[in-house]
Amino acid sequence: MRFPLTDLLIEEAKKFELRSACGDCFYWRTSHCAHDWPDxxxxxxxxxxxxxxxxxxxxxxxFCKEFELR
Length: 70
Ligand code: SF4
Known about the structure:
By secondary structure, the protein is of the alpha+beta class. It has 1 helix and 4 strands, in the order βαβββ.
């Protein structure tokens, strides 16, 4: 699921220590998803990490419906 990456979302993610990326997911296996889901942006952490190609702040964030906190 994709949402706009707003300043409020970034602020609340930090305030409440949100965990939503693959690195904190039970299904993450060192370098890939155990389900082989493609990376639609859910691996990015922190949420506002700059795009590695453009260096710009992303405008959207992706949350995976299969995420399970480890
Ligand atoms: S289930 Fe989703 S959040 Fe978990 S590792 Fe796979 S793609 Fe990432």
